[in-house]
């Protein structure tokens, strides 16, 4: 009955069969089998799961997230070439919808919604596993769009069997102003204990896109002098990992990582640089401590324990559009699971808990806003070998979410009738306006013109508590039809309550008290063939997300905005013979928002038809509105205005998803000599039309009509060469965007220039020739 487990274990690695050499596949299969002793490979979602190995990462000289996932077109990265802005998408869903872990520690929380929340150093990665869509109960809390699991190396991954100590020195650079240095030392302290320490530094100057335009900003100061500010950045990472192996299958590791990035970026780093979005110093820092323990003894004890503590911070300096800003996120928690091998059943039961705190405010002052969130998850997942060729998987998960928010504002301001009437003609026509209570939106006083004036105070505090809980089930099967053909199918549910918001928006936005938990469903089926060096796979899926949460453009509170539906097909064809390896992939995804009723800022009227204008809730020091309109659902002739079938767009549906054209990729590599390999990556993204946008902005009256956007198609060519001078010295050459294509990645937000001049995400870097030299001793 173990044959089917071996086949299922290979499912996430299907693409690797045509990417890696026979020896590498054998080695990775052995490692995967060992890892299964702690956690069984997911069956639900197996048709589209995949893995990226350390060899893949090194081969393409991965420097950031876009490099890591270059080999897999179903995972895309947008945001431009500034690493701090990069966002990951799977099946159209942004990484905020995924459960992302590093050695089991969740990477949750966003410092700023214009900044990517994932920051990982490819140098340290042993493997990356991706589960697309809601999956098995073991995927973790909040995995409504899938999961990404990063696993870091330890000393034993780098040492030979007869080696006690070693190290790696590496230097590299790129023609598009990129330099990287790293040093690692590792060794066995004794027969049980080993230690790995690594230091990585990256210096990047402003890159140039395919048009030769530098991502920088020039302006004329008050003296008439031309001033140039560049988007330079420095990244520094320090990592240390102590690990040990004992008898009875015991494994222990304790790691500590600090990652710092500082540079000059636009206030909204993924937006075009302009006078309204100037460059200022921005600093981010993250420190993570992870403890892992595992023990395997007999069929009833296969225990895995993970404990973690992560602290993140962001500082934005300078007189930015809002205010000099700081944000902090602290995440603590753990996961305990045990796998029982009971004859034909392999049952995993576990519990996880996460406690998170997000706070924000003006730089140099006490933090004025705070959100604290907790989640408790209890789960069970069973893999049942019904026969030698049929495996059934089923599981159940319970999650309990709670969130507390506190927002404090203390701004006292002066207002008078003439100033209000000059901005709002309906106030002048009415001859008066009413002061409305910010929380209840009920009138509390009348101010008459023309000389009436008064003082008003912003809301002094707001405390909201929301909670949600529920069960999620899954069912999947893997059926080995023949030695070459395998059929997989799965259905899974996942639930996510409101978690802490990003540290910028909680500074001035709240949460709807009645917000409901997001509920995801994922159904997929796959068929694959693997024999005689030929691999074929086809998978189709439908993922839905009810009660999607979002903070709309111009909105005041996070609320349920509607339902998401994501449908798609993935095809893959691979061939390997002797020294030649080829993999062709095609990905189609359509992600749409349904049942969307804009909740817009609108002018309200009292019982007599006179205009009511709600006074500002925000300090004038924030450069915010002097008058805050009342939030209300958009209506047409008294009926709710509801939109259906809106393609997701990364600007308006930020923190939810994005749309991109059909993607075709080709990966070809050839071993010219035993120690020389060359390769070619080709990617073509088809143009995407019919992105209708700005529904919310139209409903609020800020623009007159919706706009239909188009994302132009593009083709990219990357080349690489890998040469092992000897067993210790390696040379890697990578030419990215070899033909200097000027393009905007479809996973970045679209070009809105016809509405707002110059309003578009950054274009990707142009040609970049990278060369690295490493010495391992």
UniProtKB/TrEMBL annotation:
PANTHER family linked to this entry: HEME_HEMOPEXIN UTILIZATION PROTEIN C, TONB-DEPENDENT OUTER MEMBRANE RECEPTOR
Entry keyword Signal: yes
Signal sequence segment: 1-26
Pfam families, sorted: Plug (PF07715), TonB_dep_Rec_b-barrel (PF00593)
Cellular location(s): Cell outer membrane
Protein's membrane topology: Multi-pass membrane protein
Transmembrane segments: none
Protein family: Belongs to the TonB-dependent receptor family.
Chain ranges for the short sequence motif TonB C-terminal box as given in the UniProt record: 760-777
Lineage of source species: Bacteria, Pseudomonadati, Pseudomonadota, Gammaproteobacteria, Chromatiales
Domain TonB-dependent receptor-like beta-barrel: 318-737
Protein name: TonB-dependent receptor
Keywords: Cell outer membrane, Membrane, Receptor, Signal, TonB box, Transmembrane, Transmembrane beta strand, Transport
Domain TonB-dependent receptor plug: 51-147
The species this protein was found in: Rheinheimera muenzenbergensis
């Amino acid at each position: 009955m173990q044959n089917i487990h071996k086949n299922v274990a290979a499912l996430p690695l299907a693409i690797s069969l045509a990417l890696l050499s026979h020896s590498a596949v054998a080695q990775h299969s052995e490692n995967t089998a060992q890892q299964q002793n702690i956690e069984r490979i997911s069956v639900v979602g197996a048709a589209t799961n995949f893995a990226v190995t350390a060899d893949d990462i090194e081969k393409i000289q991965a420097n950031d997230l876009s490099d890591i996932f270059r080999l897999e077109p179903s995972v895309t990265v947008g945001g431009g070439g500034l690493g701090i802005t990069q966002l990951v998408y799977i099946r159209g869903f942004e990484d905020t919808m995924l459960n992302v872990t590093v050695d089991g520690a969740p990477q949750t929380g966003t410092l700023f919604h214009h900044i990517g929340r994932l920051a990982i150093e490819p140098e340290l990665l042993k493997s990356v596993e991706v589960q697309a869509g809601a999956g098995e109960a073991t995927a973790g809390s909040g995995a409504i769009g899938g999961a990404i699991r990063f696993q870091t190396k330890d000393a034993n991954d780098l040492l030979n069997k007869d080696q006690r100590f070693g190290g790696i020195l590496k230097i590299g650079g790129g023609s598009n102003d990129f330099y990287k240095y790293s040093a690692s030392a590792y060794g066995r302290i004794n027969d049980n204990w080993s230690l790995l320490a690594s230091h990585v530094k990256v210096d990047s100057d402003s890159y140039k896109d395919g048009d030769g335009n530098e991502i920088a900003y020039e302006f004329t100061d008050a003296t008439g002098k031309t001033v140039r500010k560049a988007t330079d950045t420095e990244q520094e990472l320090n990592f240390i990992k102590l690990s040990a192996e004992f008898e009875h299958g015991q494994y222990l590791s304790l790691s500590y990582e600090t990652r710092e990035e500082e540079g000059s970026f636009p206030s909204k780093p993924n937006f075009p640089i302009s006078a309204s979005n100037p460059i200022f110093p921005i600093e981010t820092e993250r420190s993570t401590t992870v403890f892992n323990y595992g023990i395997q003894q007999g069929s009833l004890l296969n225990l895995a324990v993970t404990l973690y503590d992560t602290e993140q911070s962001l500082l934005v300096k300078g007189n930015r559009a809002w205010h000099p800003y700081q944000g902090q996120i602290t995440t603590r928690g753990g996961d305990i699971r045990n796998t029982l091998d009971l004859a034909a059943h392999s049952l995993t039961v576990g519990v996880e808990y996460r406690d998170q705190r997000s706070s924000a405010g003006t730089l140099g002052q006490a933090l004025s806003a705070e959100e604290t969130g907790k989640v408790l998850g209890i789960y069970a997942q069973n893999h049942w070998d019904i026969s030698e060729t049929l495996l059934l998987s089923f599981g159940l998960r319970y999650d309990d979410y709670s969130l507390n928010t506190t927002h404090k504002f203390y701004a006292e301001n002066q207002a008078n009738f003439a100033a209000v009437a000059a901005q709002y003609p309906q106030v002048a026509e009415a001859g008066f306006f009413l002061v409305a209570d910010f929380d209840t939106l009920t009138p509390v006083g009348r101010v008459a013109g023309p000389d009436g004036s008064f003082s008003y105070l912003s809301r002094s505090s707001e405390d909201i508590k929301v909670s949600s809980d529920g069960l999620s089930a899954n069912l999947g099967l893997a059926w080995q039809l023949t030695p070459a053909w395998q059929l997989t199918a799965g259905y899974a549910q996942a639930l996510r309550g409101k978690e802490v918001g990003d540290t910028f928006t909680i500074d001035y936005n709240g949460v709807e008290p009645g917000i409901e938990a997001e509920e995801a469903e994922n159904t997929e089926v796959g068929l694959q063939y693997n024999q005689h060096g030929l691999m074929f796979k086809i998978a189709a899926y439908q993922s839905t997300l009810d009660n999607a949460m979002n903070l709309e453009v111009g909105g005041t509170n996070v609320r349920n905005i509607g339902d998401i539906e994501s449908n798609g097909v993935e095809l893959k064809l691979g061939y390997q013979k002797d020294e030649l390896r080829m993999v062709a992939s095609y990905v189609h995804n359509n992600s749409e928002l349904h049942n969307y009723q804009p909740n817009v800022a609108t002018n309200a009227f009292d019982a007599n038809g006179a205009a009511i204008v709600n006074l500002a809730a925000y300090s004038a020091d924030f450069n915010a509105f002097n008058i805050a309109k009342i939030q209300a659902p958009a209506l047409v002739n008294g009926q709710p205005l509801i939109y259906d079938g809106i393609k997701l767009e990364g600007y308006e549906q930020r923190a939810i998803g994005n749309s991109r054209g059909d993607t075709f990729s080709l990966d070809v590599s050839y071993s010219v000599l035993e120690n020389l390999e060359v390769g070619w990556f080709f990617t073509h993204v088809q143009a995407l039309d019919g992105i209708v946008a700005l529904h919310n902005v139209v409903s609020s009256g800020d623009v007159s009509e919706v706009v239909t956007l188009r994302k132009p198609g593009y083709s990219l060519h990357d080349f690489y060469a890998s040469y092992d001078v000897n067993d210790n010295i390696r040379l890697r050459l990578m030419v990215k965007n070899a033909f200097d294509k000027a393009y905007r990645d479809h996973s970045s937000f679209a070009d809105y220039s016809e509405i707002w001049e110059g309003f578009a995400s950054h274009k990707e870097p142009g040609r970049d020739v990278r060369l690295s030299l490493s010495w391992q001793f």
